[in-house]
């Protein structure tokens, strides 16, 4: 079956020849409450031959295809019904055409969109510049606007007019920024005018040693120290911290090297199928900044979903697709720097994997546009990659909620420590000096009071097995302490 597939978007088909030949509307990102009866009722006044409503296996997305008796009938339905509201969500319609790339020369990226604006408003705003295939405003899981969206024109000329015609354009005092979507675009990080000497470095060859990195960067000034962590096999973990003697040396190294392609595909161990990530060197955050960032991210991800990244999970790929075919599909959204595909052991007829795009914007496009992609009738599923630390944070929060809901233990009810509790308390006490600056936040005066208070908080949001793990793993224990100090567990000061 794989031999019948070609390496183009023609593979993104509905597995019915009827839908390929007959005029068909695609309705993407429908409310999960949508049923076939809803769609049939919406199109009841039109000559519809068939209706298909599908949901992804994980229940994350719902989409539909409506097959019409004639092109004229289909176009009339789009004109009359596009952006109709169904179960609280706009129904965004477009003609289904596997030959039309999901993005390309006619695609523009729109940011600064007011939260009150709907996709229909976006369509009205940009339709004066040319024929629109489809447009969409990105939303979160609760349907709240992310304040950016995409408009796909039928021609590059129309896209050019939109970009030129919207310079300085405002809606409700919001400056609307319009640009051509460019998958090759890179994010350039500029450091503020600060005095610093320590730099964080990554995206160098996997075979690099500390001495190789020193030789690369010491041309910009004397290096006093390099932190170059290694894996158990002796290879680099993929990042390092370089401390220059003078601030101007660190600034010069960033100006000359950051976001530059310093290495070849061969040096980086990359296949010709992948892009080489540009060298990365920026001002290194201090430990306090890293802790605040971790806690901020944890609060953000728990409240609003995972933070957008370049790395995405891939799911629901039919097992007969090979890596190159899937890679060709994913490459339509932007430049890929890494990619891996494996057999899903929970479902032998499916594949899963990871893909890394060169920019966050490309990953955002992939997340939004992949909802329209079918692989032999299977909805391609992309989701944000989560690190081990992020999974630990989520697990911690779930434990806390579960224990709170079951009323197993309350912080103010803990009068005496058990033997395990005492071991946990001792572990907290052993690292308490790292948190002396935070004693005032908790209204404690010494390490003993700090460790007692933190221990009670941890006991109130963990089970026995989790506490044992924290006793054995200080890095995880520090994560819980950092989360507590940042308010992830809604720490309340004792009076």
Automatic annotation (TrEMBL):
Keyword annotations of the record: Repeat, RNA-binding
Annotated Gene Ontology cellular component terms: ribonucleoprotein complex
InterPro entries registered for this protein in UniProt: Hud_Sxl_RNA, Nucleotide-bd_a/b_plait_sf, RBD_domain_sf, RRM_dom
GO molecular function, one term: RNA binding
Domain RRM, first and last residues per copy: 23-98, 106-183, 197-296, 310-398
Keyword Repeat among UniProt keywords: yes
Protein name: PABP
Source organism of the structure: Hepatospora eriocheir
Origin organism lineage: Eukaryota, Fungi, Fungi incertae sedis, Microsporidia, Hepatosporidae
Gene name of this polypeptide: PABP
């Amino acid at each position: 079956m794989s031999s019948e597939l070609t390496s183009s978007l023609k593979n993104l088909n509905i597995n019915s020849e009827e839908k390929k030949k007959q005029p068909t509307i695609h309705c993407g990102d429908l409310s999960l409450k949508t049923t076939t009866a809803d769609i049939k009722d919406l199109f009841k006044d039109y000559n519809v031959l068939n209706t298909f409503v599908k949901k992804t296996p994980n229940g994350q997305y719902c989409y539909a295809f409506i097959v019409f008796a004639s092109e004229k009938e289909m176009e009339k339905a789009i004109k009359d019904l596009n952006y109709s509201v169904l179960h609280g969500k706009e129904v965004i319609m477009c003609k289904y055409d596997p030959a039309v790339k999901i993005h390309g020369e006619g695609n523009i990226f729109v940011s600064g969109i007011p939260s009150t604006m709907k996709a229909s408003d976006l369509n009205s705003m940009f339709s004066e510049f040319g024929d629109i295939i489809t447009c969409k405003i990105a939303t979160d899981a609760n349907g709240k606007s992310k304040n950016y969206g995409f408009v796909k024109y039928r021609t590059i000329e129309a896209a050019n007019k939109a970009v030129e015609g919207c310079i300085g354009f405002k809606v409700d005092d919001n400056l609307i920024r319009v640009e051509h979507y460019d998958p090759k675009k890179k994010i350039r990080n500029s450091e503020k005018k600060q005095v610093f000497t320590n730099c964080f470095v990554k995206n160098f060859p996997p075979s690099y040693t500390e001495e190789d990195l020193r030789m690369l960067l010491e041309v910009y000034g004397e290096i006093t120290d390099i932190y170059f962590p290694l894996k158990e096999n002796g290879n680099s973990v993929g990042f390092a911290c370089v401390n220059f003697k003078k601030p101007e040396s660190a600034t010069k190294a960033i100006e000359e090297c950051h976001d530059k392609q310093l290495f070849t595909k061969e040096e980086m161990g990359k296949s010709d199928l992948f892009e080489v990530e540009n060298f990365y060197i920026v001002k290194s955050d201090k430990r306090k900044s890293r802790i605040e960032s971790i806690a901020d991210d944890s609060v953000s991800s728990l409240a609003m979903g995972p933070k957008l990244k370049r790395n995405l999970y891939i799911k629901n790929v039919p097992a007969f697709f090979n890596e190159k075919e899937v890679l060709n599909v994913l490459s339509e959204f932007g430049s890929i720097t890494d990619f891996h595909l494996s057999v899903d052991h929970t479902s032998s007829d499916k594949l899963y994997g990871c893909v890394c795009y060169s920019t966050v914007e490309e990953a955002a496009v992939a997340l939004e546009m992949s909802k329209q992609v079918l692989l032999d009738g299977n909805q391609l599923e992309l989701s944000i990659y989560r690190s081990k630390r992020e999974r630990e944070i989520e697990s911690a929060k779930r434990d806390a909620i579960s224990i709170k809901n079951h009323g197993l233990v309350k912080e103010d009810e803990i009068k005496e420590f058990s033997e395990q509790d005492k071991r946990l308390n001792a572990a907290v006490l052993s690292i308490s000096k790292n948190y002396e600056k935070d004693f005032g936040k908790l209204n404690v005066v010494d390490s003993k009071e700090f460790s007692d208070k933190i221990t009670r908080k941890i006991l109130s949001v963990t089970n026995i097995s989790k506490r044992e793990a924290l006793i054995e793993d200080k890095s995880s224990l520090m994560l819980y302490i950092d989360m507590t100090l940042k308010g992830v567990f809604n720490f309340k000061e004792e009076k």
